[in-house]
Please model this.
Amino acid sequence: MVQTDVPIEIVQHMASAKFPGIISRNDPMTGILPIFHVANSKAKDREQIIAYMLKSYPLCAHIKCSQGDYLLHKICKFGVVNHLLLKEVIALNPASLEQGDNYSLHPFLLAALPRKKKKDKVHAFQKQFQEWGLTSNDDAKHLSSIYICLREAPQMLSHLDLG
Model:
């Protein structure tokens, strides 16, 4: 299992030719791929680690974990806000945009879920965010993640019960 404080260099070494296939093996205890552990972690370099692991094993975007989630579900659920990474995962498996997780929540809905708040520092550029009810720059990035998912699969709005 990838720990939350593992430096990116260690992950890169794991993915090297010295240990072929380690990124593509499920954790025997949890049944999920290492990249899913990283998505759920608090590692400061987790987005870099995910990008590197995805480059090393792009098929992981097509694999469901034991909980029924694709990588897209995990990165939306756990607040990965790197939009280039989000777009890459969507490009590798666009069908995952239309798949619900084990609670039938689609990726754009997972991205909309509230996150636990960090201690917020108010900066001048965040004043507009606060007027909109957003408390941090990450909140705005989560909205952008929702937009990216919906732009790629606008038909997902038809799944919402608005009545």
Summary: The mean pLDDT is 75.
